[in-house]
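INTERNAL TRANSFER SHEET
From: sequence group
To: structure group
Subject: Sigma-54 dependent transcriptional regulator

Please process the attached sequence and return the structure record in the designated field. Keep the field labels unchanged so the import script can parse them.
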Amino acid sequence: MAAERILVVDDEDNARRAIVTILGEEGYEVAEASNGMDALTRLADFSPAVVLSDVRMPQMDGLTLLKKAREQGSDATFVMMTAFASVETAVEAMRAGADNYLVKPLDADAVLVILSKALEKRSLRREAESLRDQVRARTRFHNIIGDSPQLQGIYDVVRRAAATKATVLILGESGTGKELIAQALHQESPRKDKPFIRVHCAALSENLLESELFGHEKGSFTGAMARKEGRFELADGGTLFLDEIGEISPAVQVKLLRVLQQREFERVGGTQTLKVDVRIVAATHRDLTAEVKAGRFREDLFYRLNVVSVTLPPLRDRKSDIPTLVSHFLEKYSESYGKEVKALAPGTLQALLAHDWPGNVRELENAIERAVVLAQDTELTADDLPPVLRGPRPLGSTSSNLIPGASMAAIEREAILRTMEMVHGSTSRAAEILGISVRKIQYRLKEYSSGKTTHATEEHAEDAVID
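Return from structure group:
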């Protein structure tokens, strides 16, 4: 293993060289600089893991060096050295981003201990970042977040269907992420470098929708001041996403059926037949089978659209994905609002799991955004959530409150929920830490969200089929 690189920055030659000698004898690769300006140059070409820097130096002091280094993108760990041992100096250094500080005159053993701790902390931080990246890669598919069995099956269908020209019909309640699936189909397809055009069918009247889809000629209706290309033309070679397809009128259904059958159409008010190569992806929250039976949706159009169907499960049926989604939204809105909200306080995850989420992922995102805005600490509490989500508090805010006198089921619940919070919602990582199966964690999360009590007779329940 390569030796760790240390940069020593001090304007006192004797002190600097003494530290360089000590660290060199300990097997570190050491570079030195006599002032902050030289240190900035060495940071770029030496790329140290740790910088040992004096605080008081001419030209550029240690704290300014630290700030400049961060501006340049250096991730080196800083340990400051000062002959002025004061709380103010230490606090200022730590606020600026230093990991620790040493008081001059330096003790060699203290230097080595502090340096060892700094390197260990750096290693742990990088390992945590790597694990988070692995979790993100495993739980995200083109901005769709979750690793529940239901979503894994959908990801597989999307990958297989994307390579073809087949029309895809996406079904599911509002807020489940139908447009994200449509975008994933496009991005996984050979058409990914061509346009992805979306039309929200429910937002337009019959006449406007027809014009939007097929375009119109100048003078074809009042207000048609010039020729306009429709979405089919704009999407030529790419993908056209028809959201809320169940809302279109019978007249538009007829024209859409012709495009699907013959791949040709005319603009409104026009006579020229246009041909396009467009992949159709449609979505609706309606039960199109029931709409066909009721005579509101053409059966032949339904079968043309329903070559490959994908049904997105509501969030209440995949609650094991809630911790991962919450972690994502926490990160997103903490950055957006410039806040340092990093985790969930005890009881918050349980409150989120207990809700049925009729608005699905969209409702969950809204709840977390609201909570981040209102949060007064680095942890979200149940009090930060919308009133409808605030339920009874857990048996205790810490594990010490559960022992003695708590049941094994309560202790297990606390261990699972707190570990899920710690690993940002990764069921696989939590299972590895707790030494139990992923299926057992998924089963327990579903159980906690339903309010059931774990009994000894349920010890093998994780072998049941997970919905």
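Handover comment: The radius of gyration is 30 Å. Residues 218 and 224 are 5 Å apart (CA to CA).
Transfer complete.
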